[in-house]
Amino acid sequence: MQYLLSYAEESSGPGSDTWTMRQIGVFHRFVPTGPGSLWVFLHAKLNTRLQQRLEEATSRWEQSAPQQRHWQFMHLLVLSTYLNNWRWYLRSLAADFEKIADSALTLDFTHPNVYEEGFGRLIQLQNLQDKVLPLTPRLLASRTTVQKLQETSLLFRNSSAEIAQLDNELAKHSSALEGHIQSVALLEKRAQETLNLLGLALNLRSQATAVSINNNMLNLTTDTVDDSATVRVVTVVTLVYLPASFVASFLGMNLFVFQPPDGSGFAVSRQFWVYVLLAVPLTVLTLGSWYLFSRRRKQQEEERSQVGNAV
Known about the structure:
single chain; about 70% helix; mainly alpha; two-stranded antiparallel sheet; rod-shaped
């Protein structure tokens, strides 16, 4: 038989994550009527804890009676070395979740600077969820391995106390893995609910900010409308007084004399044509420039509109 066993191992190296996911490969060939068992262990690193326990167990088994050297106890040694780590790893994940959740659920989003902190907690929860999601398939695979070992032990069942102890140990590991699977499902559900709640709070904060901006824009629009009304009133008043101002300016020029030397009354200068010659072309030039500028601007807007529709 051969199988891969996934497990969590606490590491002491640099970095914020103190746990590492590892695997060990086990190959076992057993010939009841032959030379016995052949074992191959593919360790994740040198001088592992399992290797140390194997050396100690081998030295004890060499000194024990042959009936006490049952090969299935070697599988129990592998299981007991690494499967118990899941308990402490899940406890570490639960502690990290409680710490993040307590901080995230007490944030006061009425303060602007809390928004960045809430986003940081959201990222932490997402990272925690990424760690939790792969655990269920790994635990299910480990439970299947234990169940296959239980089925294999049935083939060699007898009334010895060692076989009964073996069955009890395998049943204990299977029950522990089932509890770990349920704990992972609960932790995954709590992390997802907290993630949704924090995301909803951040969205509500964003919506509140958008409402505040819209209110400010509404107030600005209202002020602009008031300013436009004021400008319209000023324009109307200017238009009312414009003819009188024009007449006053026109008659105030030196082209008109109200008291000529001969006493004839009102008189117009013979150079009045200069005023007409300058004013009329200048007016035509101004109106023509305004017309050309408006027409060119309208054409550019139509071209941009056609390009936008084509895209």
